[in-house]
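tool=predict chain=A
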Amino acid sequence: MSVSYNLLLALLLLAPGFGVYAGIYLGSQTGRIQFPPPAPGSVFTLAIITLGSVAAHLVGVLIFAAEERICAITSACISTRWEPNAYRVLLAVSKPNGARVPEQIASVLAVLVVLTGLAFVLAYLVTEGLTRLKTFRGLIYGWLAETAVAEDRNEIVVAYILSDVETEGTTVGYSGAIHNLKINADKEITTIVLSDCEVFYLRVDKRGVRQYDAAGYEVLSRLYLERARIKNINFERVRIGP
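tool=predict ok
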């Protein structure tokens, strides 16, 4: 076997692991908070892909083993001109009498495609379900899980932001419901989008800190702010339903 074939075989066998990785990442992005996937070369990423591939192939092997056992017991077998067990084909491909029939190659690729798709769907559904658990949300979102994540569908999270626009003791602020919030790997806010946003002023004078509504400003349907524009931020959960 050539080096190029070994590389191709490794990629094919790791395909279900990449499906698991994509499912875990996309399954955790269903809320208002979005974060980047782990670095491609990180140990965490390699562990997800490797363990995901092993688990998916284990399921595949068990399915073929169950099919052969059922066939032996009940004689309800599907007859083919080629070896239907994709793993036997992969183990025998380097032998002189290895896979030569096009149907064998197609069956192997079909099995890997199905396994990758199933791995992605299962990882997505499991991760999406786990994000409803408070402990799991803490692992994903860090400190934001306590303040910036709604507990249920009847809650929204309102953000109060002090911007970098400041003059003579007066700072421009914004308040609105979180529409989208992106964080980096260190759980630091990179961008935030507010909906139904209102503008206010925060003024510091001899009497203390006072907040004033910005007269003449309409409610903004969307407001996008980058990290450099955010001087301070506070969150408040607001219940909108029973």
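The chain has a mean pLDDT of 80. The CA atoms of residues 9 and 50 lie 14 Å apart.
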